[in-house]
Amino acid sequence: MLPKIVACSAVYGSAKGALAGIPVAGDLGDQQAALFGQTCFSAGEAKNTYGTGCFMLLNTGTTPVPSKSGLLTTLGYKIGDEPAVYALEGSIAITGALVQWLRDNLGLISRSSDVEALAATVEDNGGIYFVPAFSGLFAPYWRSDARGALVGMTRYVNKGHIARAALEATAYQTREVLEAMEADSGVKLAELKVDGGMTANELLMQFQADQLGVDVVRPVVAETTALGAAYAAGIAVGYWDGEQDVIDNWAEAKRWTPVVDETERERLFRNWKKAVTRTFDWVDDDVVE
Questions:
Q1: Nearest alpha-carbon partner for 99 in 90, 87, 109
Q2: Which helix (H) or strand (E) holds 11?
């Protein structure tokens, strides 16, 4: 019933008008292009794009893996006549949007970039957890009845703790998606390649590495979606010889390595999971939103 899978790295025709004769090549969806741009060409390699929401894709090779853990099975890419490559995708609705909410709705910060400095005024989250289920929870829960919750509040908590909890929420949600991917694929992730605006936040990236227990790597070119389309087009027209040529062109800008104690890492995540359950079943049948 589905359309035939054709190459996303191929020459489809030539432009007309001012660009007459220029080959039209390279055609990928947003997140698939980012996967390509991060050169995740081997099964088990994954990337996470941090924007308004987060979108993580894990290369599962040439065989589609039906998810049993709340993820989406998607087509990754197809280069020329080579077999199609599939991926698992996990979508998180609210990540960078939570920082925007702190800025626009609460006025805690003037600019989104100010959240890191505010979060750095405290040493930890003060025991609070911010679950941004503003429109329900996406992967791996898929709970439309959930709503946002800020739990664990005491008189000790200040705006710095709230800012830190907001950033930590992105890392916890990413870990949940990653663990679902590992359960579905049977592959243990060696490192996570990251891109998107929130990767400029050093505090968040370090906490992300601490929560995942693996290195987090940011490339020199952060606009990996556009880069992926360029890579696919370049391979199609022979500018690059193939995947290895593109891998050699990819360059690492920064790497964050886990430093947190394992016991503390698991304690924080256990409390996050507890906080998530507090958001369930909030919307009743008679609630009009």
A1: 109
A2: strand 11-14
Q: At what angle do helices 262-277 and 202-212 cross, to 10 degrees?
A: 100
In the Cβ-directed half-sphere of 79, how many Cα atoms lie within 13 Å?
23
Residues 87, 35 contacting (CB under 8 angstroms): yes
Cα(8)–Cα(54) distance, integer angstroms: 23
Phi, psi of 200 (to 5 degrees): -75, -15
- Dump the DSSP string for 201-250: -HHHHHHHHHHHTSEEEEES---HHHHHHHHHHHHHHTSS-SHHHHHHH-
DSSP string, 84-122: PEEEEEEEES-SHHHHHHIIIII-S-SSGGGHHHHHTTS
| Model pLDDT, residue 40 | 96
> Could you report the per-residue pLDDT of 36-88, keeping only the tens digit for each?
999 999 999 999 999 999 999 999 999 999 999 999 999 999 999 999 999 99
The bridge status of strand 23-25 relative to strand 129-131 is: unpaired
Q: CA 33 → CA 76, 141, 213, distances in Å?
A: 8, 26, 26
Question: Which amino acid does the sequence have at 211?
Answer: Q
Residue 141 token pair: 């829960």
